[in-house]
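Narrative summary of target 7.
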Amino acid sequence: MASVRRLRDVGEHAWIGRWITRLARWPGAASGGRVVVGPGDDAAAVRPGPHTLLLTTDALIEDVHFHRSWVTPAALGRRAFAVNASDLAAMGAVPRFALLALEAPPATPLATIDALARGFARAATRVGARLVGGNLAAGPHLALTATLVGEAPGRIVTRRGAQPGDLLYVTGAFGACGLAVRRLAEGRAGRLPEIPRRTPAGVLLARVASAMIDVSDGLLQDLGHVCRASGAAAEVELDRVPVAPACRQALGLGAGAFAAQAGEDYELLVAIPRRREAALLRLRRHLGCPITRIGRIVAGRPAVRVREQVGRPPHSARGGFDHFRR
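Modeled conformation, tokenized:
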């Protein structure tokens, strides 16, 4: 009797990869040029008329992405908007419209639902977007699913354009949210940090980037997505990865390795051709956040290699978040 294959046997990213391949062969997949960027990137890009729209969706589910004691309802609403806005930023786009679908147990206080929606709507307003609809349904736990529609003022950047010789840069710092999740899971007091707003930086970086992705599942794992999409390898110098001060203070020498794999940072990882590095440096002061060079794209089969210290050979890296293989 044949055994039943389950999601945990395959994993999140392998299943997604299989369906990306299937959808490319689906009837009507060509769509007359209306699909500019299809499944497999941070957002889809479609051209239903004269203008290109970017579409993204994501969910935050109780006891999977958060516990209620970890975050206030208003902050959770802001977070639901921010994780989707981060996907648009990674393609050089800005949010314009949003939908929010809520699932909640019938006994949920109205004040909680009001705070969730208010936090989401206010986060949208702050970046010039608008909440225009959604849904509310009963369920066994709290869950928020957001869909954002965005526009790119300039170039649309995907994960696919990195070339050997490109330099790898990241915005911000890593490890703060991963450390907070670890402490909260241990029962220690604290809150999840707010997700950084990188929309302005994403729009500017799109001018010079060959590829870009937002880091949600871990720096090394998300860099692996860029490598596979681009058909190249990458080398990361671990001591160059910018580590959040709280993470450095708590973990000491182990902070760099932790920060590179922990996830939930929502910073931007960018591949920059060497010929555009001078242009990047001119943009630096307008980004609204630090940006740090951490490595390079190299020729070879798609893989991420980490050099822990100068002078030591790099080694293959794994790690990061997968919903079904934890």
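The first strand starts at residue 35 and ends at 37.
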